[in-house]
Design a protein that fits this description.
Number of domains: 2
Largest sheet: none
Order of helices and strands: HHHHHHH
CATH architecture of the largest domain: Orthogonal Bundle
Number of strands: 0
CATH topology of the largest domain: Rna Polymerase Sigma Factor, Chain: A
């Protein structure tokens, strides 16, 4: 094993938890996307191993690894867009409006009052800016609540498909 391979092995083994956590975060908890990102990050780390200095403080090492993961994620988004689904993919195309509303209601079961109101406004076609104005909050607060709402709905969806 040459010096570059040893350095790479040390890098990956000492930071595998951070690498996996960042890839899982950027994948949006999608297993297929996670595996793609993980493979791309490991390949990127191999290409960048000559710029890695094991003498960095542990905090600097973790930061360097997180920045490499973020760079791969941004490149991945530029290449494949924000979604890895086909452009013409419309999961609601074959659903009748009543069934679609029932599905949304099932997924929204665990939402609190503000999150439910936000969902209703979005379903009515309001933009995030309009929703923030109507709800009397800043765009940043609305964005946090939006992401929290989406995460709760994802968790509810995962519960329903595991049954």
């Amino acid at each position: 094993m040459d010096a570059a391979e040893q350095k790479y092995e040390q890098l990956v083994l000492s930071h595998l938890g951070v690498i996996r956590e960042r890839c899982w975060y950027y994948s949006g908890a999608d297993r297929r996307v996670f595996e793609e990102l993980l493979n791309e990050v490991l390949a990127d780390l191999w290409e960048a191993v000559d710029r890695y200095d094991p003498a960095f403080a542990p905090r600097q090492q973790r930061k360097w690894v997180r920045e490499r993961c973020r760079g791969v994620y941004k490149r991945h988004r530029r290449l494949f867009g924000t979604s890895l689904l086909p452009v013409d993919f419309d999961p609601a195309a074959d659903l009748e409006p009543a069934l679609l509303r029932e599905t949304v209601d099932d997924l929204a079961a665990g939402l609190d009052g503000d999150e439910r109101r936000l969902l209703d406004l979005l379903l009515q076609g309001y933009s995030h800016g309009e929703c923030a104005q109507r709800m009397g909050m800043s765009h940043a607060t609305l964005s946090r609540r939006y992401h929290r709402m989406i995460e709760k709905m994802k968790q509810q969806y995962l519960k329903t498909i595991q049954r």
